[in-house]
Design a protein that fits this description.
Elements: E1 3-13, H1 23-27, E2 36-37, H2 39-45, H3 51-59, E3 64-76, H4 81-97, E4 103-107, H5 120-132, E5 138-142, H6 150-155, E6 158-161, H7 170-187, E7 192-197, H8 214-224, E8 229-235, E9 249-254, H9 257-273, H10 285-296, E10 303-306, H11 322-329, E11 335-341, H12 343-352, E12 357-362, E13 374-384, E14 387-389, E15 399-401, E16 405-410, E17 413-418, H13 428-431, E18 442-445, H14 451-455, E19 461-464
Parallel strand pairs: 1-3, 1-4, 4-5, 5-6, 10-18, 10-19, 11-17, 11-18
Antiparallel strand pairs: 2-3, 7-9, 8-9, 12-13, 13-16, 14-15, 16-17
Helix pairs in contact: 3-7, 4-5, 8-9, 10-11
Length: 502
């Protein structure tokens, strides 16, 4: 039985968002557990549909698990120096107190940017490696949207990535990482490492793993692992992190360098050959609303509209109003929009009570170009305390706290209002306030892709709206400053050149 330290710090950093992600945000219980330490790591994470959850299930009873710190910050603005240093220092302190250990497993994201480190994940791995030395296996699981850097590869013995988007395989990824750790404990650390970066960016709504060319890439990764190659992972990158290493990549860990090189080379060649096959059209708000209503008039199932440019899962504010305004203007019926982040409106609704009418400026508190609050008089048709357990395949089994929630109706459109930012990745949020998603004609969802896991089976069709927000889908709309020069801003897109470069 081996002694294995576990922990992790997760954050998907949208560097284009104003503000900062502070320590208190990591402490808050929202749609994922709050910051936990020691034995609470195991009690909170077990069964919680996260990477560490799967690792615990795979290793419990087989090895001694030594918990350090786990912090899930979701997605948002740049992490403060104070938050990173406080959490990372505590993790390293608890790890050091448990030395010696036989292995370390970290449940990370891979796109964390802090005020003091462009690559926060690499810095955490560097500190862990310094604490345990070169001969202790250090394995991390990563989000599919990780911006893997050479430093991350150098400090870890394997970087095991999710293989689904929507991410329905977080626990399975933790279990894969557990198998990798056990392989290293039995056979030693594989010395072959390879990283291949692809020179272009892909928008989130173009990345689902059930769509080509990604579906084939994932299959090739699965086929490429074996006796010699212990890990072969494709990562699509997170384009909203303005960092030098932002973008697609393939990483391998193998018992020979030749095998690692060959494994990543095969995947990278396929991605290069099929660069031009990524794509999904976006519709302007009024056009999208009109098309949704046209289809819904003849459909037996809901028409889904996804709003990727206001996706809280990508760091978006969750309170932009372009989709809502277009659907109200079009006089949509049996239509639901949400989740809309507006704690002030939720508070007013709770004070007024179910059945009351309230006049509020809904959303639009986080100002972006083209975004204004939506002024209107709404009927309060549902209320909830925001405490529930999720049920869907993407985030099922989590105990969540979203603060006071309300369902507000104006005309034929109902808005799901929440007090804490969350994307539309689970139907339980809507049912909590009395909305049954399958009974709607149109569902306007604040999400880029994760909604597909739970809502996709309900859909007559899925439309993508191009409403203003903090997560621009087109990389050419983003004011990069740190991105590697020459990176293409989209498949077959223009190359990024720093301002003033010739």
């Amino acid at each position: 039985m081996a002694k294995i330290a576990v922990g992790g710090i997760q954050h998907e950093t949208n560097t284009f968002m104003a503000g900062r992600t502070d320590y208190e945000y990591f402490e808050e219980h929202r749609d994922r557990p709050p910051l936990v330490r020691g034995p609470e790591v195991l009690s909170w994470l077990k069964g919680a549909s996260l990477g560490l959850s799967g690792f615990i299930d795979a290793m419990e009873g087989r090895h001694e698990l030594v918990p350090t710190v786990w912090a899930g910050g979701g997605a948002g603005a740049t992490v403060t120096e104070h938050a990173f240093e406080r959490i990372a220092s505590e993790l390293i302190d608890l790890l050091s107190r448990q030395m010696p250990v036989d292995a370390v497993y970290l449940d990370q994201h891979g796109a964390m940017v802090t005020e003091n480190y462009e690559d926060g994940d690499a810095e955490l791995l560097r500190r862990v490696r310094a604490a345990v030395g070169p001969d202790v296996p250090v394995v991390a699981s990563l989000d599919y949207h990780s911006n893997v850097s050479p430093d991350m590869v150098a400090h870890a013995d394997a970087l095991v990535a999710y293989r689904t988007y929507p991410h329905v395989d977080r626990p399975q990824t933790g279990a894969r990482a557990a198998r990798v750790v056990e392989t290293m404990l039995a056979r030693g650390i594989p010395k072959g490492k390879a990283l291949r970066k692809l020179p272009y960016l892909v928008a989130s709504h173009q990345q689902p793993t059930v769509m080509e060319p990604t579906a084939t890439v994932i299959r090739l990764c699965e086929e490429g692992e074996g006796d010699t190659v212990v890990n072969l992972s494709y990562l699509s990158g997170f384009r909203l992190s303005d960092t030098y290493d932002c973008g697609l990549c393939v990483v391998a860990n193998a018992y020979t360098q030749e095998a690692a090189n060959a494994a990543v080379g095969r995947i990278a060649s396929y991605l290069a050959e099929h660069e031009g096959t990524f794509g999904e059209p976006m519709l302007e708000p009024d056009t999208c609303a009109a098309k949704a209503m046209e289809i819904a008039a003849q459909a037996s199932k809901p028409v889904l509209i996804c709003d990727p440019q206001d996706n809280p899962g990508g760091g978006g504010s969750g309170d932009t109003t372009g989709m809502l305004a277009a659907l109200v203007k079009a006089r949509a019926q049996k239509c639901v929009v949400g989740p809309m982040h507006d704690p002030e409106a939720a508070k007013v609704a709770h004070a007024a009570g179910k059945g009351a009418s309230i006049t509020v400026n809904l959303g639009g508190k986080t100002r972006f170009q083209g975004v204004e609050p939506f002024h209107g008089t709404f009927e309060v048709v549902g209320l909830g305390d925001g405490i529930m357990t999720t049920t869907g395949p993407a985030v099922g089994g989590r105990k969540v706290e979203l603060g006071p929630m309300a369902a507000l109706r104006i005309g034929g459109v109902t808005v799901l209002v929440v007090s804490k930012r969350v994307q539309a990745n689970d139907q339980s949020y809507f049912r909590h306030v009395g909305i049954e998603p399958k009974d709607q004609k149109i569902l306007g969802l604040k999400s880029a892709v994760h909604f597909r896991a739970d809502f996709g089976p309900l859909a007559e069709t899925i439309l993508v709206i191009k409403a203003p927000g903090g997560c621009p889908a087109d990389p050419t709309d983003l004011p990069y400053k740190r991105l590697k020069p020459g990176t293409r801003l989209g498949p077959l897109g223009p190359e990024y050149r720093p301002y003033g470069a010739v």
